[in-house]
Amino acid sequence: MRAEIDQVTVRGIIEGITLHAENEVVGIVGPNGSGKSTTLRCVYRALKPDAGTVLIGGQSVHRRQDLARELSALTQESQVEFDFTVAEVVEMGRLPHRRDPARDRRVVAEALARVDVAHLAGRSFLSLSGGERQRVLIARAVAQEPEVLVLDEPTNHLDIRHQLDVLALARGLGVTVLTVLHDLNLAASYCDRLYVLDEGRVVAHGTPEEVLVPELVAKVFHVTAHVVRHPTTGVPQLLFDQEVTP
Amino acid sequence: MIGKISALVGVLAVSIVAGVGLGPVSVPFDLTLQLLHAAVTGGTVPADLAGQYHIVWDIRLPRVLLAAVVGAGLSTVGVAIQAMVRNALADPYVLGISSGASVGATAVATMGVLSGLGVYALSTGAFLTGLGATALVYITARTNRGLTPLRLVLTGTALAYGFSAVAMLLVFQAPHGEAARAAMFWLLGSLGGADWRSLPVATVVTVLGIVYLMTRARQLNALAMGDETATTLGVAVTRFRTHLFIVTAGITGVLVAVSGAVGFVGLMLPHLTRMVVGADHRRVLPLAPLAGASFLVWVDVAARMLAAPEELPLGVITAAIGVPCFIFLMRRRAYVFGGR
């Protein structure tokens, strides 16, 4: 399913952002405060843009009653106070769908297993570590069976193995994935295309190969980078010098 | 789950019959059952039992049923409000209803406002100013993004201080202390004025409210996880919170009008229920009203008996029973509402 952001502006934060993704993994990268999360919040309707439109499957998100059946999101929201179990949290992903207990149970069990939290199913969500919580929330987004999956920094708090697992899972779903990532090397490894945001605008987009070049990294992130090839996959990876460019 | 519900229904039924029997003039349990059976089925009662029949049917039963309704309502509203504002300290009165109602009640008791309404003056005055206060909280807390949880709690708390100040001023300005005492007694909660006429409105509003909330259990779960999460799960958060506000304010307003501001039930019973069955509203919502109903029936029994023939305010007893129970359970179980 196609996700399309057209000339979206949130006053003072993002300005005329245009991007799209369709049955591919699209990464959004950029420095802190460049408007990555704000862009995603417009997609999952936590924010109504001042101008521009967000279309999912060709229809504006603000005209869709049943959007939650097609779009799920991992948000940055994290202050939960209620002591739900892990299974209950993941089961919330079934809320938008017509109730079907047998199928709901199966989908929830699958989602728990896919992000490696099945063994935590009966545990209290609040008792988990940051990384475990993050995986549970990803399981919930997966249990929603979306056509479009929006992920805001999915690798936050995760150890390296689970970072790789989660991004591989996102690719393996075969749906449209729109994800904000901080780690440029993970973005290069797992995204089909990247959009680079700086000061609320898209400053570059294309394949990782086209986008992650030393000149752009220096301009946007103010660091000196060298591009090397991953010895087995051939994907471009960045190595950074210690001193910061002005 | 079915087992827990049946057990609590059983407890409530026994509590109601026992509650009807107990009081300054006690009626034995089996005789109470027999008299209630006769009343419900239209049977006959021997002439020498007429006095006890009068106590059971006309005085105690409506009062005990009202206690059950108020307990069920406050407990359920507490569950909904804690999820609605995502705050462990929230109770049905956090939106300013009880302090607003206290203005009306003290005005009636000390200044004779609405005296044309006779015995209904106090509850009418309380109901009107209670809902007026809630409307004011709603209007003040509202932003163009709807009602946000923290703003609601802050606005409700701040305005509650204002309303309480007005009520206190009325008490201190009152020419004689007796009126102030009446107002204070009412504020701490009492079912002393209960009769059959006070039941229908309170029961209908409470039952409809509980049914509505039970049908929204999964949405309440989503809302408890956060507004953004609830939005991505397809909950229209702004509209849902407005509906919750109206339903909880409506139930609370009606209950405060018939029983005063019974404290602690709406704060504690939701937590007690969650300690036993967890946070999932699909389990909390059927059990919290049953637990709250039984609890308040026994609280009212204690209010009648402990200092008989004087009556104690319900709020004093809910606190005296509730605080130690609550602290005991909280320390015994690894209960983590509010994070570890």
TrEMBL record, chain A:
Keywords: ATP-binding, Nucleotide-binding, Transport. It comes from the Bacteria. PROSITE patterns: ABC_TRANSPORTER_1, ABC_TRANSPORTER_2. SUPFAM superfamilies: P-loop containing nucleoside triphosphate hydrolases. Residues 3-224 form the ABC transporter domain. This is Iron complex transport system ATP-binding protein. Pfam families: ABC_tran. It comes from Lentzea xinjiangensis. GO terms for molecular function: ATP binding; ATP hydrolysis activity.
Automatic annotation (TrEMBL), chain B:
Gene3D superfamilies: ABC transporter involved in vitamin B12 uptake, BtuC (1.10.3470.10). It is a multi-pass membrane protein. One of its GO terms (molecular function) is transmembrane transporter activity. Keywords: Cell membrane, Membrane, Transmembrane, Transmembrane helix, Transport. One of its GO terms (biological process) is siderophore-iron import into cell. The chain crosses the membrane at residues 7-27, 64-81, 93-114, 120-140, 152-174, 194-213, 244-272, 312-330. InterPro entries: ABC_BtuC-like, ABC_transptr_permease_BtuC. It is found in: Cell membrane. Its main location: membrane. One of its GO terms (cellular component) is plasma membrane. Belongs to the binding-protein-dependent transport system permease family. FecCD subfamily. This is Iron complex transport system permease protein. It comes from Lentzea xinjiangensis.
